[in-house]
Write a structure and sequence with these properties.
InterPro entries: Prepilin_IV_endopep_pep (IPR000045). The structure is a single chain. With about 130 residues, the chain is mostly helical. It has one domain. The chain has six helices and no strands. It is elongated and about 55 Å long. It starts with a helix and ends with a helix.
Length: about 130
């Protein structure tokens, strides 16, 4: 769902992020009782802390970081880290392909990073099953 908003507006609505956080909080409480609230907060904060530098360097948008944060609350920080690494590799391959196709670097081109996040998530699901 986030991909649709990202593709159309280069923006992921905060309402969608809040729904994701609500689901993550519910899952963490269901699995870990009240300590799940603390785990939820830790899982939500870690991706933001790790990716903050990329945000300040304009390497990632705030919506992308929020999506990683929500993902971490839903599937765990370890798997989210695997998705982060894999999505960077997929985006890098895509950028190399664009450079070769367009015969140069187009600095005005923006990528919908959520596409690579989604692709990495499902690719890892297929590999890990």
């Amino acid at each position: 769902m986030a991909n649709l908003f990202d593709a159309r507006e280069y923006k992921i609505p905060n309402e969608l992020i809040i729904l994701g956080y609500a689901a993550g909080l519910f899952l963490n409480i269901q699995n870990f009782q009240m300590i799940g609230v603390v785990l939820f907060i830790i899982k939500a904060i870690l991706p933001v802390l790790i990716l903050y530098l990329l945000y300040t360097l304009k390497g990632l948008g705030s919506g992308d970081i929020k999506l990683f944060s929500v993902m971490s609350t839903l599937v765990g920080f370890e798997y989210t880290t695997e998705v982060m690494i894999t999505s960077v590799m997929l985006a890098g391959v895509a950028v190399l392909g664009l450079i070769l196709y367009e015969k140069g670097i187009n600095l005005k081109r923006r990528l919908h990073y959520s596409f690579y996040m989604t692709a990495a998530f499902f690719l890892l699901q297929m590999i890990n099953d």
